[in-house]
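Our working data are protein records whose layout never changes between entries. Instead of coordinates, the fold is spelled out as a row of discrete tokens. Here is such a record, shown just as it appears in the course material:
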Amino acid sequence: MCHTPFGYRIENGKAVIDSKTTEQIRILFQSYLSGDSLDNSAIKAGINSFHAGIGRILQNAHYLGDKYYPAIIDQETFAAAEVERLKRTEKLGRIREPKEETKVVFPTAFHIKEGTQPFDDPFQQAEYAYSFIVMEIDANGSQ
């Protein structure tokens, strides 16, 4: 474990509930579900954190309890907070769908006419050679 979630402390290698901060977690969830913003909910709960930190607290599944952390929040409250968070996110237009990437096919094969005029300058020779490119051939062989 690299970080102990807010509301817990470690005693003898096990996570135990910290009674003072646990009450703050419960107040945070109830305040958020009653309609307060993340910041106002944190202020009411007495939690001094930034906006994203409060959002992560509301999404932390450890508060439901697992084999290491005891439960602080019941499943119904946690699920209701997640539904409310998603509803507010959608209402504010903060859900970003990943953009569909368009595949760009670069030509790798060319059809070139024959050229026989030699130049002493390599740049002129290259320009002369490129002038004979008639068409590009796609990777699948089409033109």
